[in-house]
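How it folds
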Amino acid sequence: MFDASIPGIPHFVYTDRTALVNLTYQGFNQKHLPSSSWIEREQEIYHHAAMNFTMSKNVADSIVQDYNCNPEQVVNVLCGPCVNVSQMEVFDDLRYSSQNILFVGVEWERKGGPILVEAFKILLNKFPNATLNIVGCSPKLSLPNCNIVGKVPLAEVSNYYKKAAVFCLPTRFDPNLNVCFEAMAHQLPIISTYGGSRPEFIIEGKSGYLVEVDNYQQLANKLIEMLDSPQKCKSFGEYGHQLAWSTYTWEKTGVKIRQNIERFI
């Protein structure tokens, strides 16, 4: 951690997290918090920046409240998906009847993978033909109907979104889930956990559902509800798709950053 600012030269920060915002996440262990000197340096960085840009409101609030930063130095500019998908792309509605659940994440434990496994075991009692695709990591599992894809080139990830009925990532703690915007851009309903920025874009009962961290029974219930209604999957997916393209794109984020930087040059 270091402060790269130079007196007299406008300096800008863009971040998806702060150290102290981790304390608001249910699954975060406080012993993993950085040292007090690290946090002091982090605070200096925010205070010395001409502007601090954030990917979500909860992080913007943390910079102001936890680090005593001037609100005028903080702007929530959001972010966008990192996969290449067109706003005008037409998706096959038959996938909502596929009973295919998609998980995309590199850190299996932190992203709630083991909780999803327990929920999936329960779900199979009602939907024995349901499938689970795991993209981004390769956990050692002995689980029926589970396809462990592992890491794939970014250009290929879109193929898995296009075949899924539901996107599920029951993360234990996370500041900002870019993969959720990818799922929304692919017109998928989302099931994730409370915390972080997720309540800002996973609109309960409209674009998806939020469940308690580590609550696999609650997660199973919501997955069963979604798979039981392809029409609900479609409706949630369409709502999220509209929200993603109206609010969460890198083009819109770039415009906001540019407009704020232009004030200083």
